[in-house]
Design goal:
Blueprint (H helix, E strand, L loop, with lengths): L13 H19 L4 H9 L2 H14 L10 H18 L4 H6 L3 H25 L14 H13 L2 H11 L3 H27 L1 H8 L4 H17 L5 H32 L11 H16 L12 H17 L12 H24 L3 H12 L5 H8 L4 H29 L3
Helix pairs in contact: 1-3, 1-14, 3-14, 4-8, 4-12, 4-13, 4-14, 6-7, 6-15, 6-16, 6-18, 7-8, 7-9, 7-18, 8-18, 9-15, 9-16, 12-13, 13-18, 16-17, 16-18, 17-18
Protein name: DUF819 family protein
Keywords: Membrane, Transmembrane, Transmembrane helix
Length: 420
């Protein structure tokens, strides 16, 4: 029997492919930040993040480039992803988070719990009348794909891609859940932005005192001004050295821990504890959190999180290379799962917000710091007042720190309740 082979892509040189991907990202982010009306209108409909996945996917579908035959994803996922986790979490200000520990902190934690439990509950609900939507076997098991949404909605893109590597959903399934992630999350953000314009009414309903928001606005504005600076070459080299140095250390330790567990406790493979990559991302996140208690966190003022974002979006583009664009509409039932999931998150936030009389600002930013991460939490915060945008960044950094852990737990719960 003659073996069929996939035709070689038009471009096979990874250096050329990398150049194309980075140019695509540059064009997307340049146009997304443009003041021109045509671009503002376009990106109000089509999220920039979706294009970062979609355009490389189209190039792959047209066989111009090939994710399957390229080594770029392997390099990016092992080097750029853990480095971005370190740099995102290094600026975590534990003292400021502690100051927010009451209503703002509780609303953030409530949002996290809502995402962690909402996924398993959505699977349970849908499985009662349409088990095929949330079923599947092996890499096509829907819970595996939904776990990547949990990573995105608790932390952000880095946590999502970490869950992709740990639970390994099929590329087609991942393509479908990416569409669910982006569309449902943006619908929810639109709801929050609308609510920001009606925040006085919501605060009145919650009987909330919003004076704490005003005090917080002033504190954060002063802190932001105190650390922002034009980055020097030593700053950039230090950021790179910390990111890649701790990535190397994480690789060294994960290469020891995972084989030891495989040998001495092989049953833990069910929880991915024998996965070297799982330990890689957990260690990188932990190292960043530890460094956040030192002066190293001031590197955020020189752009640590912006460097991390650049790393992250290169990885996003390499993921897009592996996607089949037709899979985006192949499983419409998954959108029902996503809507039920985000509704659980919303319901829990409103119940707790009402009980503790939290200002709507804390509810909205606590939610978006989970669901949208550092890319959109500042947008929601700034809808209340531009000076409050850093609050969204601060809480979303906490999301990056806990996203890997929360999404992993949510994934295990989804695995337990998913139909066979």
């Amino acid at each position: 029997m003659e073996e069929t082979t996939t035709p070689a892509p038009l471009i096979t040189n990874d250096a050329v492919v990398l150049g194309i991907l980075v140019v695509i990202l540059a064009i997307i982010f340049k146009t997304a930040s443009s003041d021109r009306a045509v671009f503002r209108k376009f990106y109000s409909v089509v999220p920039a993040l979706l294009l970062c996945y979609l355009i490389p996917s189209l190039l792959n579908s047209l066989n111009i480039i090939s994710g399957e035959k390229s080594a770029l994803y392997g390099v990016a996922s092992r080097y750029l992803l853990p480095a971005s986790l370190v740099l995102f979490t290094i600026s975590l200000d534990l003292k400021e988070i502690w100051k927010l520990r009451h209503k703002a902190g509780l609303m953030f934690i409530t949002g996290t719990v809502g995402i962690m439990l909402g996924g398993p509950l959505a699977i349970l609900i849908v499985s009662t009348f349409a088990p095929d939507i949330v079923g599947g076997q092996g890499p096509d098991a829907v819970w595996r794909g939904l776990t990547t949404i949990a990573g995105s909605w608790i932390g952000g893109g880095a946590n999502q891609l970490a869950m992709f590597e740990v639970f390994k959903p099929s590329p087609n399934l991942f393509s479908a859940v990416i569409a669910v992630d982006v569309i449902v999350a943006n619908v929810w953000m639109a709801v929050l932005l609308y609510g920001a314009g009606k925040s006085d009414r919501v605060d009145k309903f919650f009987k909330a005192d919003s004076s704490a928001v005003e005090n917080l606005k002033n504190k954060i504005e002063r802190y932001r001004q105190s650390i922002m600076r034009v980055p020097s070459l030593p700053d950039i080299m230090l950021i790179a050295g910390i990111g890649f140095g701790l990535t190397g250390l994480a690789h060294l330790l994960s290469d020891m821990i995972a084989p030891w567990i495989q040998t001495n406790a092989p049953n833990l493979a069910r929880f991915s504890l024998t996965s070297g990559f799982f330990w890689l991302v957990v260690l990188a996140t932990t190292f960043g959190m530890l460094l956040s208690t030192t002066r190293a966190r001031n590197l955020e003022g020189a752009g640590a999180s912006r460097v991390a974002s650049a790393f992250l979006y290169i990885l996003v583009a390499t993921i897009g290379m592996q996607m089949d664009v037709t899979a985006i509409v192949s499983q419409p039932g998954l959108f029902l799962v996503g809507l039920i999931w985000i509704s659980m998150h919303m319901l829990l936030l409103f119940i707790v917000g009402k009980l503790i009389k939290a200002p709507f600002f804390f509810l909205a930013v606590g939610s978006q710091a989970n669901v949208g991460g550092a890319a959109s939490a500042p947008i929601v915060a700034a809808a209340f007042h531009p000076a409050l945008a850093p609050v969204g960044v601060l809480l979303s950094i906490l999301g990056y720190a806990v996203g890997t852990y929360g999404a992993y737990i949510s994934g295990i719960l989804m695995q337990l309740v998913a139909p066979e």
